[in-house]
Amino acid sequence: MSTSAMHVAKTGLNAQQYKMQVIANNLANVNTTGFKRDRANFESLFYQIVKTAGAQTADDTALTSPLAVGTGVKVVSTQKLFTQGGLVSTDNSLDLAIDGQGFFQALLPDGRVGYTRSGILSRNAEGVLTTTSGYILQPQIQLPADATSINISSSGIVSVTTPGNDIAEEVGQVSLANFSNPRGLTPVGENFFVPSAESGEAQQGVPLDGGFGKVLQGYVESSNVNVVQQLVDMIESQRAYEVSSKSITAVDEMMQFISRNL
């Protein structure tokens, strides 16, 4: 029984280590554009059912509750919380933020389409809009090399003016994607997510249509990490780790007492 208690305490240590890593990652990305914080989800392990509820204790009496002993805890999943981050003005014409639902789309090096909330864009040598990592925005939008001004409307229409032409010319449309279960998306780094079997297929559309949010030019969406809340969670996780550690120490002292006195 004593070794079982040690095992239960060990599962608590492992669970809190995972939680601390999640918190550390959240804090490390507090300034990452478009970052969505993670949350660790726990569940109890199997119970050892020594006696079931209703087990007979005498001729006319029975247990009203079972004798069930837990075997610990485990981290069952981590979950992205897609709450809206703060919108920060940058006055950069190629900085975009989504106010509402939706993801920008970009072509990843392995041929998959990645989805992100980070709208920090730039132009490559051909004038094609790319992400900060150089991945081409989808659908592809190419800007003239001599464009003097770039305007992106809240509905995602991209228009430019060129020398000698005061009338804006439409050159592309920023489209967005959404999923029936965004929490099922798989994070792959560089602010990107890729679909999984549980996220569902990407549903594409344009800003301000079909439940999609609007695009704001000259803004970026900041991380939705609340530093104060993360520090509180860190202290809570640290204390839980210490208690589990003390449980192991207490069980070890009990076993030492038995070995010395029996």
Report, as a whole number of angstroms, the end-to-end distance.
17 Å
Give the low-confidence spans.
none
Q: Largest sheet, order of strands side by side? A: 9-6-19
**Could you describe the largest sheet, including whether it forms a barrel?**
3 strands, antiparallel
Give an overview in words.
The chain has two helices and 20 strands. It is of the alpha+beta class. The protein has two domains: 118 residues, no CATH class; 135 residues, no CATH class. Strands 9-6-19 form a three-stranded antiparallel β-sheet, with no helix packed on it. Helix 1 runs antiparallel to helix 2. The mean pLDDT is 94.
Secondary structure layout plus pairing:
Elements: H1 2-28, E1 38-44, E2 47-51, E3 67-70, E4 73-80, E5 87-89, E6 95-99, E7 104-107, E8 113-116, E9 119-120, E10 122-123, E11 129-130, E12 149-152, E13 157-162, E14 165-173, E15 176-178, E16 186-189, E17 192-194, E18 203-205, E19 214-217, E20 219-221, H2 227-261
Antiparallel strand pairs: 1-4, 2-3, 5-20, 6-9, 6-19, 7-8, 10-11, 12-13, 13-14, 15-18, 16-17
Helix pairs in contact: 1-2
